[in-house]
Structure formats: C-alpha cells, structure tokens
C-alpha cells in the first residue's frame, strides 16, 4: 500500500507542487487531475481537501501524512504529529484595523475566520472582546462597521492595504507543515521513514 498524503487544495497545493517537483518527483498526474479528488502517483496516493479537513483525515488515519498551514493547526489543534515546516506558505497572524482608528471605550468587536486563535490571543492579554465568526473576505468587516478590528493572516499585506486597513499587532508566524497520523508513524514506520526524509527540506534530520 502506498502512503496516503492529504494535500490542502488551492494556494498550498500550487506551492507544494513546485516544491514536490523540485525534489525530483513527477507532478504530471497531479496537475492533470481535472476535478478528481484522489490521485495515484508512482509513490503516493494523494487526496485533495480543505485545510481543516486535511487535519481531520490525518487525525483519523485515512491519510498517513498531510500538507497543511500552521494556521490551521493553531486554530483547530488536531491530534496529529506535527513533523516539520515546509519552505512555502509563509504568513503571519495579525490584528488589523482601519488606518487612524479611534477606539471607543466599549467592548471591542473582532471579526475572524480564526475564532479559536482570536479567543486565545485576547484571553492571554486579559481582554474581554466579542468575536464574530466570518468565513472569508474578513477585511470587509471593519470597513462596513461589522467589527472594530479583524484577526487574519497576512502575507504581502496587499489585501489590507487595498482595503484601507493597517496591522495593529502581529502575533504568530506560520508556514505550511508536514503532519502525520500518530499511529501510522509507528505501524508504518519503515514505509514512511524514507518518504518523510525525502520531503524534509533539511534532508531528513528531524524525525527518525
Ligand atoms: N495570503 C496568504 N499567504 C500565504 N499563505 C496563505 C495565504 N492565504 C492562505 N494561506 C495559507 O494557505 C492555506 C490555504 O489557504 P487558501 O486561501 O488556499 O484556502 P482557504 O483559506 O480555505 O480559502 P478558500 O475558501 O478561498 O479556498 C491557509 O490555511 C494558509 O496556511
Ligand atoms: O497579505 P496578502 O498577501 O494580501 O494575503 C492575505 C489575504 O489572503 C487570505 O485570503 P484568501 O485569499 O485566502 O481569501 P479569503 O478572504 O476568502 O480567506 C487572507 O485571509 C487575507 O485576506
């Protein structure tokens, strides 16, 4: 049985494919897959899913390995083994507000896709806030008056800038990560060891 890798669809998928190709793997079966969500290559079976679902497939052992953003691990804290960072998908978690925002004395309203991270961040600060969950385009919330600020990931800063927002505080840094199912690491140790080493940007020194 080939190892099963769950890959986050979209942005990380594209960046992973470049990385995977740079390691000498043939990416043709993965780029020519059409709408298929499960693809076999000579080395692996790949499944394509949204980030939080990648973590779920790995946690439940459907996938042996997963490629997922560190932001997803911070938000959902799945029970998986976090092997090592991969050299793509770099971004930061930040609080952002409208430029020149004047804070009132009331309880702040914070909009975010990352409600778990947001809650933990303000708890650590000892500040009580109202958190509003959004699914995307969170930069709209302060502009339209839904929230005082957002907590979101920032890469280039272009989305904030083009929407008149500025970073107030950055508090976490992420990249894509290789994660593994905990029991697969033990049971399929021999089969997984060499592929994990091959996917390791540091040449396999991290996990034995
Ligand atoms: N601007 C960004 N720069 C770098 N990494 C990002 C950026 N946006 C997202 N990521 C990373 O890529 C992962 C997947 O993001 P992506 O935008 O492809 O999916 P998504 O957030 O589910 O959005 P969508 O609903 O549009 O698919 C995130 O979990 C994060 O780790
Ligand atoms: O700093 P930047 O390089 O501009 O990147 C940051 C943007 O990228 C992500 O959004 P995404 O494109 O995933 O869309 P979403 O709003 O639907 O989550 C994130 O939520 C920011 O909006």
UniProtKB/TrEMBL annotation:
<dbReference type="InterPro" id="IPR018198">
    <property type="entry name" value="ATP_PRibTrfase_CS"/>
</dbReference>
<keyword id="KW-0547">Nucleotide-binding</keyword>
<feature type="domain" description="ATP phosphoribosyltransferase catalytic">
    <location>
        <begin position="52"/>
        <end position="199"/>
    </location>
</feature>
<protein>
    <recommendedName>
        <fullName>ATP phosphoribosyltransferase</fullName>
        <ecNumber>2.4.2.17</ecNumber>
    </recommendedName>
</protein>
<dbReference type="Pfam" id="PF01634">
    <property type="entry name" value="HisG"/>
</dbReference>
<comment type="pathway">
    <text>Amino-acid biosynthesis; L-histidine biosynthesis; L-histidine from 5-phospho-alpha-D-ribose 1-diphosphate: step 1/9.</text>
</comment>
<dbReference type="InterPro" id="IPR001348">
    <property type="entry name" value="ATP_PRibTrfase_HisG"/>
</dbReference>
<keyword id="KW-0067">ATP-binding</keyword>
<dbReference type="InterPro" id="IPR013820">
    <property type="entry name" value="ATP_PRibTrfase_cat"/>
</dbReference>
<dbReference type="GO" id="GO:0000105">
    <property type="term" value="P:L-histidine biosynthetic process"/>
</dbReference>
<keyword id="KW-0328">Glycosyltransferase</keyword>
<keyword id="KW-0028">Amino-acid biosynthesis</keyword>
<dbReference type="GO" id="GO:0005524">
    <property type="term" value="F:ATP binding"/>
</dbReference>
<comment type="function">
    <text>Catalyzes the condensation of ATP and 5-phosphoribose 1-diphosphate to form N'-(5'-phosphoribosyl)-ATP (PR-ATP). Has a crucial role in the pathway because the rate of histidine biosynthesis seems to be controlled primarily by regulation of HisG enzymatic activity.</text>
</comment>
<keyword id="KW-0963">Cytoplasm</keyword>
<dbReference type="GO" id="GO:0005737">
    <property type="term" value="C:cytoplasm"/>
</dbReference>
<keyword id="KW-0808">Transferase</keyword>
<dbReference type="InterPro" id="IPR024893">
    <property type="entry name" value="ATP_PRibTrfase_HisG_short"/>
</dbReference>
<comment type="subunit">
    <text>Heteromultimer composed of HisG and HisZ subunits.</text>
</comment>
<keyword id="KW-0368">Histidine biosynthesis</keyword>
<dbReference type="GO" id="GO:0003879">
    <property type="term" value="F:ATP phosphoribosyltransferase activity"/>
</dbReference>
<comment type="similarity">
    <text>Belongs to the ATP phosphoribosyltransferase family. Short subfamily.</text>
</comment>
């Amino acid at each position: 049985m080939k190892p099963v890798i769950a890959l986050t669809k979209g942005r990380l998928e594209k960046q992973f494919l470049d990385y995977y190709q740079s390691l000498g793997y043939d990416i043709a079966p993965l780029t020519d897959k059409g709408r298929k969500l499960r693809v076999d290559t000579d080395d692996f079976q790949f499944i394509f899913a949204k980030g939080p679902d990648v973590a779920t497939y790995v946690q439940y052992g459907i996938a042996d390995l997963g490629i997922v953003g560190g932001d997803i691990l911070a938000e959902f804290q799945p029970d998986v083994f976090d092997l090592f960072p991969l050299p793509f998908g770099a971004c930061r978690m930040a609080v952002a507000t409208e430029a020149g925002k004047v804070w009132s004395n009331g309880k702040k309203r914070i909009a975010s896709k990352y409600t778990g991270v947001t809650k933990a961040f303000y708890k650590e600060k000892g500040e009580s806030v109202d958190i509003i969950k959004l699914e995307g385009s969170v930069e709209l919330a302060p502009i339209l008056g839904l929230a005082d600020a957002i907590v979101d990931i920032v890469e280039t800063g272009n989305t904030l800038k083009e929407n008149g927002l500025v970073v107030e505080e950055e508090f976490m840094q992420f990249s894509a990560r290789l994660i593994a199912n905990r029991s697969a690491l033990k049971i399929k140790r021999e089969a997984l060891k060499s592929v994990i080493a091959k996917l390791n940007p540091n040449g396999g020194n991290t996990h034995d």
